[in-house]
Amino acid sequence: MLQRLGFPSLGSHRRFVTAIGVDAVGSGVFMPVSMLYFLAVTPLSLVQVGAAISAASLVALPAGPAIGALVDRLGAKRVLLAGNAMQAAGFVAYLFVESFAAVLVWTVLVTVGRTAFWGSYGNIVAAIAQPGERERWFGFLGALRNVGFALGGLASGVAIAIGTDLAFATVVAVNAASYVLAFCLLLAVPDVHPAGHAHLPGTWATVLRDRPYRLLVVAQVGYSLPMMVLNFALPVYVVTLLGLPGWITGVVFTVNCAMVGLGQGLVVTGLTGRLRYRVLLAAQAAFAASYLVFLGAASLPVVLASVVVVLGTVVYTLDELMGGPVLGALAADASPEHLRGRYLSMIQLAWNLSSTVAPLLFAWLLGAGTSPLWLVMLVVAAAASLVAVRLGSVLAQAGQPVTNRAEPVAA
């Protein structure tokens, strides 16, 4: 079944894949109710909850580079396990929070744990996948996480409908349990840290002097910032500015998850042979087209606007299907194996910066009306397209074709 959808054979990696799926379901349960949970179980206001979460993200931001160095020194598996343990502990502590300080402290722990997870995750995927299969593996695991988020989101919807403290506490407990289960599954995963890395040359200075890779990090920002639109901007735009029914946002997320879950492998298969930087260009074109569709919905009646928003989501998701696997594989292929932890932590830093900036930036732009957000995002797409073109000429791996079978990739 997986092969028919264009996904790789799991082979001996079933425990790792299962752990990623369990983690995604647990995260999907909590993400939609994160703000609501703290509002329900603490005396904090919405502004205080938002401030605690944003402050935690800022405090945890420097953890990314430090975790990259730990991955190179200790191995990705140990860091991944530590990240799972930290998140499990943080969510257990959430069951007892009552103050701003408590929410801040435990959210810092959870955020650092999540950073440890993502800072080591790419290294493990790069190690278990042959160079010629990396787009398939990154695409498959991304699709799996999307399906997990969707299933978790359905469960969280039940908790929101019930609305009691016990229902919200159950969501938190389930998420904590998912991290514990994932931790146990990952114990059996072989360590992918090759012996002898400590004696190979290279430091942070090596990473920072790598100009082509720095440009790749900029390209990652050009992808990860727009990826925040679906979670942070679109629900507000649809419900508040367009005045559409709230259930439209549920349809939007369902369409996105279904397309990624069922179509990711098929898209990667269809991209085989296309040059990577051109795929990134096509992805930015899909982003730009979706922005124009969303903008056009503002001048339409409710029923037609609802249809157009869903259509815009389909176009928007095409970028996720094209850009995510290619950027993941490109980041792994372009990094030296013994410094991959540090290199991939720069990619994670791009994601963290985007997730820190996006809520405030999108809120400010949406507060100015229906047009500013989409016009600014069109500028971002144009700039990211220029970066992709430049990347194709300075980074050798960006000029290579997408592959979906195990074969050597030139250094």
TrEMBL record:
Membrane topology according to the record: Multi-pass membrane protein
Protein's UniProt keywords contain tRNA processing: no
UniProt keyword terms in alphabetical order: Cell membrane, Membrane, Transmembrane, Transmembrane helix, Transport
Domain Major facilitator superfamily (MFS) profile per the UniProt entry, residue ranges: 1-400
Places the protein is found: Cell membrane
The name this protein goes by in its record: MFS transporter
Pfam families referenced in this protein's UniProt entry, alphabetically: MFS_1
Chain ranges passing through the membrane: 20-40, 46-67, 137-162, 168-189, 215-238, 244-263, 300-318
Keyword Transmembrane helix on entry: yes
